[in-house]
């Protein structure tokens, strides 16, 4: 009888652990789904903005650039804006051609 009680307690513990793991997995799945939904919504918004900009550029709508304090430029087309990289960011960004190159050793004077 004692063995049966011990086995029953062990099985109950295993069941509780499995339920906790299932709860954690479901919470993680819901979190990932929310992140996916947010990313999809952001992607759709950016696609709409790109399409709007392309349409306005094709129609020859007014276009202006403005710079922020961070050095980033913003493209403004009739109420829509798009952040652009600053000249420094473009210069410092590695390209595919030189991304794998090792930096040259400094030359002695």
Question: Can you describe this structure?
Answer:
There is one protein chain. The chain is of the alpha+beta class and 109 residues long. The chain folds into 2 domains: 6-57; 62-94, no CATH class. It is 59% helix and 14% strand. Strands 1-2-3 form a 3-stranded antiparallel beta sheet. A hairpin with a 5-residue loop joins strand 1 and strand 2 (73-77). The chain is rod-shaped, with a radius of gyration of 28 Å.
What would a concise description of this structure say?
The protein is α+β, with helices and mostly antiparallel strands and about 110 residues long. The chain has 2 domains: about 50 residues; about 35 residues, no CATH class.
Main features:
single chain; 109 residues; alpha+beta; 2 domains; 59% helix; Myosin heavy chain, embryonic smooth muscle isoform-like
């Amino acid at each position: 009888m004692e063995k049966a009680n011990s086995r029953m307690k062990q099985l109950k513990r295993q069941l509780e652990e499995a339920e906790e793991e299932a709860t954690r997995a479901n919470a993680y799945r819901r979190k990932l789904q929310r992140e996916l939904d947010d990313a999809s919504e952001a992607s759709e918004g950016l696609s709409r903005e790109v399409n709007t900009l392309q349409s306005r550029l094709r129609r020859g709508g007014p276009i202006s650039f403005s710079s922020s304090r961070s050095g980033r430029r913003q493209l403004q087309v009739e109420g829509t804006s798009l952040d652009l990289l600053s000249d420094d960011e473009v210069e410092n960004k590695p390209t595919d051609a030189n991304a794998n190159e090792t930096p040259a050793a400094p030359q002695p004077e």
